[in-house]
Amino acid sequence: MADDSSQAIITFEPDGKAITAAQGERLLDVATRADVAIPSECGGQGTCGRCEVILHDGVAWDVQAEEQVAAGPGTPLRVLACQTTVVGDLRVEVPTAPRRRGLVVLTAAPLPDRVQQTFLEAEPPAALARRCRVSLSLPSKTDSLPDLSRLARALEASCAGPARFDISLPVLRKLPGLLRANDFSLDVTVADAGTHHHIAELGPPSQGGTVGAAVDLGTSTVVVYLIDLHEQTGIAIEASHNAQRRYGDDVISRIAWAEEHPQGTATLQQVALDTINGLIERAAASQGMQTSDIIAVTCAGNTTMMNYFLGIPAGPVRKTPHVPPAGAAPVYSAQTIGVEVAPYAPVYVSPAIAGFVGGDISAGILATGMAMSEETSVLVDLGTNGEVVVGNRDWMVCASCSAGPAFEGVGIRDATFAVRGAVQGYDYDAQTDTATVATIEDAPPVGICGSGMIEALASLVENEVIDRAGQIQMDFPSDRVRETDEETEVVLIRQGEAGAERDICLRQPDIENLIRSKAAVYAGLSILLRNLGLTTDDVQHIYLAGGFGNSLKVERAVAIGMLPDLPLERIHFVGNSSLAGASLALLSRRARDELVRIAEATTYQELAVEAAFADEFIASMFLPHTDISRFPSVVA
Amino acid sequence: MSFEMPVETWPAAVSTVTLGATAEQGGTRTSTVTVGGEATLPFLNFEQETPNRPVIAMEVFDEQPSEWPAPLEAAYSDVWGDPAQWAQKCVEEYGADLICLRLASADPEATNASPDEVADHVRAVLEAVGVPLIIWGCGDYDKDNEIMPVCSQAAAGERCLLGSAVEDNYKTISACALADKHVIINEAPLDINIQKQVTILVTDMGVDPSDIILYQTTGALGYGVEYAFSIMERTRLAALGGDAMLGMPMLAVVGAEAWRSKEARLSDEAGAEFGWGPQEPRSILWEAATATIFLHGGCDILTMWHPEAVALVRRTIDELMA
Amino acid sequence: MALSAIEIYQHLPKTNCGDCGVPTCLAFAMKLAQKQASLDECPHIGEEAAAALDSAAAPPMATITIGDSSKALKLGGETVLFRHEERFHHPCGIAIEVSSDLPADEVTAKAKEINELEYERVGDMYGVDLVAVRDAGNGSFGEAARVAAEAGDLPLILMSDDPSAMGAALEAVGSGKPLIYAATAGNIQEMAALAKEHSCPLAIRAEGLEELASLSGQALEAGVEDLVLDAGAREAGQVLQNETAIRRAALNKKVRELGFPTIAFPVGDSVVEKSLQACNCIAKYAGIVVVDFTDAVGILPMLTTRLNIYTDPQRPPQVPPGVHEIGEPGPDSPVLCTTNFSLTYYIVEGDVSASKVPVWVVVVDTEGTSVLTAWAAEDFTAETIAAAIESSGIEEKVNHKNIVIPGGVAVLSGKTEEESGWNVIVGPRESSGIPSFFRQQGFS
Lengths: 636, 322, 444
Prior knowledge:
The complex is a heterotrimer of chains A (636), B (322) and C (444).
Chain A: E1 7-13, E2 17-22, H1 27-33, E3 52-56, E4 58-62, E5 67-71, E6 77-80, E7 84-86, E8 90-93, H2 113-121, E9 129-135, H3 147-158, E10 165-167, H4 169-181, E11 185-192, E12 197-203, E13 211-217, E14 221-228, E15 233-241, H5 251-260, H6 264-286, E16 294-301, H7 303-309, H8 315-318, E17 332-333, H9 334-337, E18 346-349, H10 359-368, E19 377-382, E20 386-391, E21 396-400, E22 422-429, E23 434-439, E24 447-448, H11 450-462, E25 481-483, E26 488-493, E27 504-507, H12 508-532, E28 541-545, H13 554-559, E29 571-575, H14 577-587, H15 589-601, E30 602-605, H16 611-620, H17 632-635
Parallel strand pairs in A: 1-8, 10-12, 13-16, 16-18, 19-28, 21-30, 22-24, 28-29
Antiparallel strand pairs in A: 1-2, 3-6, 3-8, 4-5, 4-7, 9-11, 11-12, 13-14, 14-15, 17-18, 19-20, 20-21, 22-23, 25-26, 26-27
Helix pairs in contact in A: 5-6, 6-7, 10-14, 10-15, 12-16, 14-15
Chain B: E1 16-19, E2 33-36, E3 55-61, H1 70-76, H2 83-92, E4 98-102, H3 115-128, E5 133-136, H4 141-154, E6 161-165, H5 170-180, E7 183-188, H6 192-204, E8 212-216, H7 225-240, E9 250-253, H8 255-258, H9 262-265, H10 268-272, H11 279-297, E10 301-304, H12 307-321
Parallel strand pairs in B: 3-4, 3-10, 4-5, 5-6, 6-7, 7-8, 8-9, 9-10
Antiparallel strand pairs in B: 1-2
Helix pairs in contact in B: 2-3, 3-4, 4-5, 7-11, 11-12
Chain C: H1 5-9, H2 25-33, H3 47-57, E1 63-66, E2 73-76, E3 93-99, H4 104-116, E4 118-121, E5 124-127, E6 130-134, H5 141-150, E7 156-159, H6 163-173, E8 179-183, H7 188-198, E9 202-205, H8 209-221, E10 227-230, H9 236-252, E11 263-264, H10 271-283, E12 288-291, H11 296-309, E13 322-326, E14 335-339, H12 342-355, E15 359-364, H13 371-376, H14 382-392, E16 402-405, H15 413-420, E17 423-426, H16 434-441
Parallel strand pairs in C: 3-6, 3-12, 6-7, 7-8, 8-9, 9-10, 11-12, 14-15, 14-16, 16-17
Antiparallel strand pairs in C: 1-2, 4-5, 13-15
Helix pairs in contact in C: 4-5, 5-6, 6-7, 10-11, 12-16, 14-15
C-alpha cells in the first residue's frame, strides 16, 4: 500500500495489468492508460452504466456521492469507473466486457475483377505518391534550361496526370546541390495533389522501397493497412479500438462532448491521431521498417471522424440539416495533420457524401464496383451506424439509418469486436440442446461479435427459444433460458462449452437492441427502394460490409430479416469495404477520381423525416418481418 | 355521356366472428352477435352488401367510476354500484347489442379486488343479461395475467370477447381463449405493424384467426382520432387485399376516449367561457361524432358510454346501411 | 399512372448541375415523384421531356376558388382516396345558410354572426368558411345577397334554381366570385351562361351520378371550368356512396366531368343529428357542407372533424410548447419535461394519467421530434430546456424547483441544472416507467 504517497497501484483483473495512478484520477482514465478496454456510451458522464467495474481490496472515492467507498476481502463493490477516483491501491475487476486481444479485422473479400482491372491493372495506376528515379540530361550550351524546368520536363514524361508541378521552397533549395552531387540522377517523391503534382521530396538515388498506409478510421475500430505501392501488395495490418471511445460510443456523443469542452476538437483529433500513429508504428515495426518509409496515407471514415481527424470542429454534422464542415478535403502533408510517417507524405481523405454518410461509404461504393456496373446493386454497411446505398453507374442514392452500434457489440453485454476468440458463427440445436460454435482463429470463445449475433438470433428464433417478436420464451424446455435478478437471458454457450471460460449470453435487452439495429437497416433499404420506385427484385447484388466478423452465412442475415430475401448468390459479404476503398485510393489515380465522382453524384436521402420510415421500421421489428410474405425462403 | 360506376374488386374479405354462445352452442346467451364479413370498404353497398352491421357494446364497470361528468352520472348513478343492474339497464332500456364489462376493481392502484371477486362480477353480469359479453381486464398486465384465467373460466363456453392481448401478455389471454372457447381482442398502440405482430404471435399460439378482434388504442375527436381512423382504413384495405393477419373485424373504444376530452368534460359554466354551448348535447355529440368517424374507418364494434350517444350512432348506422 | 423516380430521372438532363436547388438530378426526380417539386424548377428540361413528364403529372381533380377576398376558399385538387396515401389538400368548406325571406337587418345580423363564428384550438383559431344565401322565392334574393356580402369577408354561396333571381343576385355580388348553386337539368344553359358572364364557379345538382356527369359535361362544353358537384342524394348512406364514386371516378378513371369538389347538405331532425351527419360527410370526401344552424354544439364537432381529417399525416404532429397540465396540478405537483412531438407527449400524458399523479409538463419546442431524435439534433438540450422553463412561466405555478427529465437524456442533467438553476431529477428511460418512478419518488 502506498500509504502517504499520492501514487497508488491499480491492478486490473483478470489481465493482472498493474499501473501507477495519481490520487484523484478517474478509474476510467487509468484503464485507458493501462490499455484496458472499458466500454462507455455516455462519454464518462455517469449515466450509461456501461463502465461498471468491481472493486476488490481497497478504497476509492465515489464522485457522485462524494464519499469514500471501501471493498474488503470477500465484499467486492460494483462502481462506475467514470464516477470513481483513485484513493489508494486497488484491484479492479473488469467484469464482462471482453478485453482487447489484438483485433483481427479483414481488409475485404477479394476485389471484384472489374474493380481490379479498372483501377489497378489499367495503365498506369498512379499511386498517391511515387518515388521516381529521374536521370536528367546534362545541361549544355545548347540546353541551358533551368534545373527546375529540367526536372519538370523529366517528370512529365514519367508521371501520368496533371502536367503542372509545384515544389516547396525548402525542397527547391536542395535541387541544384543534389543534382550536381548525383550526376543529375535523383529519386523524386511526387505526390498527386489532385489538380497538380507536388514535388514532395528530393534525394539521392536509393534502393528504398515505397510504402503507403491505408487507414479505416471507424467510430469504434481503427485499422491501418500497409501497402507496397510498387508491388501493389499488402504487407502488414494492425487494428485497435478507436481511443476516442472514452468520449462516447457514437459520433453524436463525441460531438456533444467536443462542443462542451474547451479544446474538444483538438483533443478528439489528437486521440484519433494517437490511435492511428500507434497502429502505423506497430505495423511498420512488424516489418522492420521505419515509419518514415511510409510516403503516402489515405484515410476513410465517416464524416464526423474525418473532420476530427483533420482537426475541424464537426458540430454542424449534429444539427439539422447535418452539413459536413468539409466533405472532400485537399491533400495535406502528413506533418500538417500530425500523422507520423514521412513528414512530406501526402494524406488523402476519402470524400464524404453527406453529414451522416461519409468517405468510408464512398470508399465502399468504390471497392464493390457498384458505381461502374449497369446492374443495380445495394451496399449495406453495418458499422457503428448503418448506411445503405442503392445504385448503378448512372445513379446512386444513399441513406443513413441510425441502426445503432449493436452489431459492433455496443449495448450487448457479452459482445466483443472481431477479436481472436470472438464467436462469429453460431447454431443451436433444440433436439440435442447443443450449440455449434465457430470462433475467430478457433480460439476458445471470449464473447460474441456481430456475425455471431446474426447467426445466433436466427438460430434462436428458428428453434423457438425466442418468439418472432424476440421475446425469450420462459417455458422453453432448457436451462439455457433463465431469469437473473434483472433480466431474462439465453445462455448461448455454457461455461465449458467449446472451451468457454464463462457463460456467454444474450439478454432480453440485447435481443431487442439487435432487432432494432437490423430493423433500421432493412427499413432504410426498403424506403430507399420505394422512393426510387424499385422493388427488391430490381436489385442484382447486395454487398454487406462491415468489420464485425470474418465470415458470415448471409442466409442467416436474411433469416432475421436484415437483408431482403433474394437468391443467395446475389448476396455478398464483403468485410471492411471502407479499408478496401482506401487501399485502392492509395494505389490508383483513377480510383481517387472515381471517389470524387461518387461523392458528388451520390444523392443523400434523409430518412428520419419520413413518416413511412418509422412505419417500415416498426414493421421490420419482427423476425424476420411483420410482412412474412416478403421472406418466402425463411418461412419455407 | 354514359357513366360507369367505378366498382373495385377485392381479393379477400374480413373474417366473420360470432360472439356469444346460446344453450345449443354450449353457452347460456339468449342472443349472439355476428360481426365482420365485409368484402368492401364501409357501407359501399353498390359494391357489396354489408353482411353484418356494426354493433354497439355498452360499457359497464364493476365498481362505481370516480369523477364521472354530470351527463353520465344522470344516466347511471342509480345502477353504478352494481354491475349486474347496470348491465341490465343497458340492455333493457338502451338496447345494447352487447355488454363490455370492465374489471376496474382489480386495478392494484385502486381497490385491488382478488381474481375470485372479479370473477363473481363476471358471473353476476352473465346471469343478469342474455347478450354476449366483452370481458376487459384492468389494464395492469401483471394483474390481468392473474384475473383473466379465473374470469375466463367463470365464463367458459360463453364465447366472450376477452381484452386484451398485447406483446406482454398474449400467452395468458390466448391460453384462456383456447381453453374456455372465447374470442380475443388483440391490442396495439396505434400501430398497424404491431397489431399484425400481435396477431401473428397469437395465431402462432394456436388461436384461430376467426377468434380474433383487432383493437388500436383509439383517441377521440380532436385528440388524435385521425391516427386511429387512418390505421383502420389501412387495416381494412390490407384485409381486403388478402392480408390474413389483418383480416379481422375491428373494435374501437369510443366512450372512454371521448369522455376524456375537454369538450365532453367541461360543465355548462366552464364551457360557456369558450362559447361552447351546454354540456349535455355537447358531450353526447362528441361521443357520437367520434364513433361516426370510426364507422367510416371500418370499425365493427364500438364500445360506448352515454345512452343518447348510443341512440344517435345506432341511427347513423341505420342510415349508412340503407 | 404516376412515374417512379427512376422513370422521371431518365427524362432529366443528368448533369447534376444543381440549378434546381437540389444537388443531383436523381434527388430532383425523387422530389418530383413525391410531388415536392415542380418540373419548371429545372431550367434545362427539354420540350419533349417536359411533355412526357407533364402528362403524367396532370391533376385528376381541378382546384377551384370561391370568393376573391382574403377569405377566398380553395377546394378540390385532391390526389388520393385515403389520407394516409399522401394527404388531403384543401379542407372541406363549412357553410351556414341564411334565408332571403329574413328582413334585411336580420340577414346582416346572421351573416355577421357567421363571419364571426370562431373557436380556439391549441393556439389556433378555426371558423366557418362560407355564407350560403338561400332564395326563399320572395323576390329579395338579390338584396339579401348584397347585405350578406357586405356583412363580412366570407365568400358566398348563392342558392337558387331560378336563373333570373340568380342573375339579379350576381349583378349585386358577382364580382366577389360567389359559388352559384345550382345548375340543374332544367336550367343548365342559363346558369352556365351566368357563370361564364360573371366568371363564377358553378355548382351542379343532378338526380344521380349519370345525370351529374352529363350536366357537368354540358357546363364544360359551355366553357365553365370551375364546377362543384351535387349528386342529389341527402340520406347518409347514399351520400357516402355517391361521394366515393365521384372521387374514384375522378382519380382512378380520370373522368374529367367528375374531377371536381362536391357539396353536401346534411339533414336531420335536430342540430345534433344534422351536425353528426355533417361529420359523416366531412370524413368522406365532401368539398363543402352546408348547414342551417350556428349553434356551437353543432359547429364545434364539424370544425374538429375537418381539422383532424385534413391534418397532414406526413408532418410530425405537434402539441404547443409551454406548460401543460395533466390532472389538476398544484404548487407541490411534480414538473416533467418532454418534447412537443404529439405522440411523445400523448404517451407521457397517458402514463402520467395512469399514475393518477397530477403534474405539470414543460413542453420544449423540438419541431415535432421525439426525445432522442431532438437530442441528437440539438433541439433538446440543456439550453433549450432551460429556455423553455424560463419562458413557460412554470416558476410562478410551483413552490419548488425540481424538474424531471427523460432518462434517455440523463447526460443533460448537470448542464441543465447549471443553465436553469433548477434541480434535475432523471426520470425513467421509457414513459411506461413513470407510474413506478412516481411511487419511488414518493409523489402522489
